[in-house]
Amino acid sequence: MSREPEDAVTKLPISRFSLPNLSDLPNDIRERIAAVQEKSGFVPNVFLALAYRPDEFRAFFAYHDALMEKPRGLSKPEREMIVVATSGVNNCQYCVVAHGAILRIRAKNPRIADQIAVNYRKADLAPRHKAMLDFAVKVAERSHAIDGTDYETLKNHGFSDEDAWDIAAIAALFAMSNRLANAFSIRPNDEFYEMGREPPK
Prior knowledge:
The protein is mainly α.
């Protein structure tokens, strides 16, 4: 049984839509992509794929930053936990791989992302975080069934109303992101797979 050489696999298209030339992009988008490349050492494929539609690129990342870079409330690892758990139930390879890498780095834990993506209920998490992910996954799967008891459970685990909003909004934003990534066949960068795998020293 033959199989493709490994280098052929890594050269598969990163999106079913054509990618824009960086030189043709508006200055603000080109600068955003350059800043990400400088920080991480590579350009995450989602930036190139979504730059196909500049106005939507700006809108998506404005909401993304408002939720994921907020300096108060949920911690940055908690926000990434929500992305990984809900992306797992939405079967989004790109977001599980990419945000799993970010979660491993921010949580300083090489195992946590894999555990949460496969089954957060069996992951090595505190009851508080399992309650947070129960709520997030319910938003992702059955938002019509959210009621006062769900908010009361969050409150009992120390989450404020502002936190509950953020949990729901992150799950909702990434429900859209998951569907776009799946529909457009956006491929995770190879670099993501190795990031944060070494235990912290």
